[in-house]
């Protein structure tokens, strides 16, 4: 308003008595136009903020009831969500393009849909930047009828640094703002598979856990830092995975704040050398201080893995030490690949431990990457993967 008024005044300068009646009339017209513009913008904002895209307006109300057991699903876009097992889903973290149809459907099933939240930590060290970011996310959640936010910040942080403290403040202030403006909303934070500075993510896990509603533990990519021999290994070996939860619990973090994330994908590693014992040596690809990492391989979705395994040279094999399946195949160049992945047999004992340790629930990265086709084999594979989340 002030800028518009100033431009109007400048147009009629210099001020003098010669302006007379025409100047006064112009000013009155300008004022009326200004108020009309302001009212139109306000009305448009009100209409947009109340326009529910669902067939039933009540489906735009936030989901408030808390489920005793969480099944937390990451969705990265598309329409495969229509094939999810909605009798299990409690929260969907929408990492793809906003889909009003997904929101309406999830709400009809009593499931939350939450935003993705990511921001450079160097930016939110400044309090005003942090406040502005939080305000933007709350307003976006309200305009899209969402039920909270999943903060997915996976940046390296040094303990005691300005970013270290800013991250803890961000989680606390985001949770307070969402709980205040969207009653019953959920704020979750994604953490590494271990609290021991994995990938140099040296966060204040205790303070963050106290501040938010859930910690989603990313129990995968556990070979992101390989300190020993550069060899292909399981994405999430059972004993290593479970030991890390004991590490979280040893910090006195409430088990009801922890959701176990499991992978619905695997890694395809080209073998630089394959030993007689079947050990696949991989390229040295460093990551955050470690000489080797799983970046030497490529992430592959479960649906690709199942098809590739059926045509593989070895068929499905099982590593009893890591409690994980794998197989070999040769590419068109004749090079040997080793593929490590998770399936119902490897996921079930992890899911069993969720109940045994009294954790809040389970989830996966990500819900879209199963084969939801109509073929009987595909439907059976998808059903078994969903059911494995509840243990065996």
TrEMBL record:
Pfam families on file: Glyco_hydro_18
The GH18 domain extends over 6-392
GO CC, sorted alphabetically, is:
extracellular space; lysosome
CDD domains in alphabetical order? GH18_chitobiase
Q: Name one GO molecular function term.
A: chitinase activity
One biological process GO term for this chain? chitin catabolic process
Q: Which InterPro entries match?
A: Chitinase_II/V-like_cat, Chitinase_insertion_sf, DIAC_cat, GH, GH18_Domain-Containing, Glyco_hydro18_cat, Glyco_hydro_18_chit_AS
- Which portions of this protein are annotated as coiled-coil regions? none
Give the keywords, sorted. Answer: Glycoprotein, Glycosidase, Hydrolase, Lysosome, Signal
The residue range of the signal peptide is 1-49
Q: Which Gene3D superfamilies match?
A: 3.10.50.10, Glycosidases
Compartments annotated for it: namely:
Lysosome
Q: What does this protein do?
A: Involved in the degradation of asparagine-linked glycoproteins. Hydrolyze of N-acetyl-beta-D-glucosamine (1-4)N-acetylglucosamine chitobiose core from the reducing end of the bond, it requires prior cleavage by glycosylasparaginase.
The entry's family comment says:
Belongs to the glycosyl hydrolase 18 family.
Name used for this protein in its record:
Di-N-acetylchitobiase
